[in-house]
Amino acid sequence: MIHPTAIVSPEAKIGADVFIGPYCRIGDRVTIGNRCRFESHVIVEGPTTIGENNHFFPFGTIGLQPQDLKFKGEDTRLTIGSDNVFREYVNIHRGTQGGGGHTVIGNHNFLMVYAHVAHDCRLGCHIIMANAATLAGHVTIEDHATIGAFSGVHQFCRIGKHGYVGGYSVITKDVLPYSKTVSERNTQAFGVNTIGLERKGFTSEQIQKIKTAFRLLLQSKLNTTQALEAIQAQIESPEVQVLVDFIKTSSRGVIK
Asked: Is 201 among the catalytic positions?
């Protein structure tokens, strides 16, 4: 169903059972999968590809050009997976040539009111971004992470799997997988997000091994290199290996 007040480009490709509400605008080179719903006043520009069963609430802006002074109209794109929810005023920008030209959002994500995803960001699956959470360009968010309300993530930072960033935080380094990381006077990791992991189905044994790794990393007198060596020598766990690999591949350093 397309409302009479909506403007849909004849070049757009629209799947089956799509609802496009009042005053929406769907631009050229936009592809929309089956059963998506655009409530009202949603603007989508291309090149943008959207999967199935996505729900866009009023006044969202999707696939507009990036806020980058180096951008000169080059052909960049946005890809969105399936089963995502984008609440009111969410805005997502296409990529830039210097950043690979591609912004990507996976599946089953929930972006709350005023959330912002800038150019060349890459979001995995089952991510929650609370109200007004803001990602600068080139940010990577791994699966099952949560970004609290009014938090800002600096360019090129990563948020690890199952990481939890508390509200009003300023993130300038990588956030450890499984961690609770919050800005108070300084941005610090406050151990393992135990409740979040339990809700995601982690066993008590898995959580205990992760906690042991965090104690070596955050509470011992070992430096990061020594702590990683101790973790690998003492703990055998695929979940802990995710943590180790994340730290080893960090380019900005991690928040401890």
From this structure: no
Catalytic hit among 120, 160, 162, 196: 120
Under 8 Å between Cβ of 166 and 159: no
pLDDT digits (tens, 9 = 90+) for 45-69: 989 999 999 999 999 999 999 999 9
Q: Is 143 labeled as catalytic in the residue annotation?
A: no
Determine the pLDDT at residue 185: 64
Environment class of residue 75 by beta-carbon count within 10 Å: exposed (0-12), middle (13-18) or buried (19+)?
exposed
Active site residue 27: no
The label of the residue with tokens 């990683």 reads: 228
Q: How far does Cα 87 stand from its chain's mean position? A: 15
List the domains of the chain with CATH numbers: 7-138 (2.160.10.10), 197-248 (1.20.1180.10)
Rg (CA), the chain: 20
Counting beta carbons within 10 angstroms of the beta carbon of residue 14, is it exposed (0 to 12), middle (13 to 18) or buried (19 or more)? middle
Q: What is the pLDDT of residue 44?
A: 98
Question: Which residues of the chain fall below pLDDT 50?
Answer: none
Over residues 2-54, the pLDDT tens digits come to: 999 999 999 999 999 999 999 999 999 999 999 999 999 999 998 999 999 99
Marked catalytic residue, from 33, 124, 137, 152: 137
Q: Which of 119, 138, 144, 162 is catalytic?
A: 119
3-state secondary structure 8-68: ECCCCEECCCCEECCCCEECCCEEECCCCEECCCCEECCCEEECCCCEECCCCEEEECCCC
